[in-house]
Design goal:
Strand content: 15-25%
Structural class: alpha+beta
Distance between the termini: 27 Å
Number of strands: 3
Strand order of the largest sheet: 2-1-3
Number of helices: 2
Shape: globular
Radius of gyration: 12 Å
C-alpha cells in the first residue's frame, strides 16, 4: 500500500485534475475499487496495510466524465 499512497501523492502534485480508478484483486472475492481525483482517493483508502494486486487507470488529459 505504501507504493499506492506514494503514487497518489505524486499524482496529486503533478496531475491533480486527472480522474483515476484503482482496482485491487480483480476477479476475486475481495475485489475493491476507488474512483475520483488523486486527493479524493487518498482520503478513501483504508488506513490499514492492504496487500494484493493493483490496477491503476489514469484518464487522458482532456477527458471529462
Amino acid at each position: 500500500m505504501y507504493r499506492i499512497e506514494k503514487l497518489l501523492k505524486e499524482l496529486s502534485e503533478f496531475m491533480p485534475n486527472r480522474f483515476i480508478v484503482i482496482q485491487r484483486e480483480l476477479t476475486k472475492i475481495f475485489e475493491e475499487s476507488w474512483r475520483g481525483l488523486p486527493h479524493e482517493i487518498l482520503l478513501q483508502l483504508p488506513n490499514k496495510i492492504v496487500k494484493g494486486e493493483f490496477v491503476i487507470i489514469i484518464s487522458p488529459l482532456n477527458w471529462k466524465f
